[in-house]
Design goal:
Elements lengths: L3 E5 L5 H13 L2 E4 L1 E2 L7 H14 L5 E3 L9 E7 L7 H8 L7 E7 L8 H8 L4 E2 L3 E3 L5 H10 L6
Parallel strand pairs: 1-2, 1-5, 5-6, 6-7, 6-8
Antiparallel strand pairs: 3-4
Length: about 160
C-alpha cells in the first residue's frame, strides 16, 4: 500500500483531473471528498451557495472521503479556489483529522486567483504537520509541469 494519499474536492472535475495527474506520478491513493448535500451544477447558483457557506464558516458533513488517515505519511490536499478559500468540504476534512507528523502538500485549481488564502487556511488547520509548497493550476497542466513541481519540492517519486 502507498503511504501517500491524495484527497480532493471537485465540482467541475478540474481538481479531480489534477488529482489524477498527481496520482499517476506519485502512486498515491485517491480519495474524493463528497459532502452530504451536493452543490448546484449551475455555476451562478453554486457560487451563491458556496459564498454563503464560506461566510458562515460552514463545514458540510462528508458522506465519503473522510476515512482515517493514520496509514499515510504524505497527504496531498486539493481544492478549487472558491472566493480565495478552500471549498467547504475540504475545510470539513481538515477540521476532522489530526495531521501531526504528516507531510501536507496543497494543490488547487482556479480561474485566475491562484492559491488565494488556501495555503494559509491549510496551514492553520495543520499546525503539527510539515507543509510543502503546493501547485496552483489555471486550466490544464502537463505531466512535465507536475513532475517538475514534485522534483522542486523534493517529493521522491516511486
Amino acid at each position: 500500500m502507498s503511504n501517500t494519499l491524495i484527497v480532493y474536492y471537485s465540482l467541475f472535475q478540474n481538481t479531480k483531473n489534477l488529482a489524477l495527474e498527481i496520482s499517476k506520478h506519485t502512486g498515491g491513493i485517491i480519495r474524493e471528498l463528497i459532502p452530504d448535500k451536493k452543490y448546484s451544477f449551475d455555476y451562478n447558483t453554486a457560487c451563491k451557495e458556496v459564498r454563503s457557506e464560506i461566510s458562515r464558516g460552514f463545514c458540510p458533513k462528508l458522506i465519503s472521503g473522510n476515512e482515517p488517515i493514520d496509514d499515510y505519511k504524505t497527504i496531498f490536499i486539493g481544492t478549487p479556489n472558491w472566493f480565495k478559500k478552500a471549498a467547504p468540504p475540504v475545510t470539513s476534512f481538515l477540521k476532522q483529522h489530526n495531521f501531526e507528523g504528516k507531510t501536507i502538500i496543497p494543490f488547487c485549481t482556479h480561474g485566475g486567483g491562484g492559491f488565494g488564502q488556501i495555503e494559509n487556511d491549510i496551514a492553520r488547520e495543520c499546525t503539527e504537520a510539515i507543509i510543502l509548497p503546493g501547485i496552483d493550476i489555471n486550466g490544464n497542466t502537463t505531466s512535465e509541469e507536475i513532475l517538475n513541481w514534485l522534483e522542486a519540492i523534493g517529493y521522491e517519486l516511486e
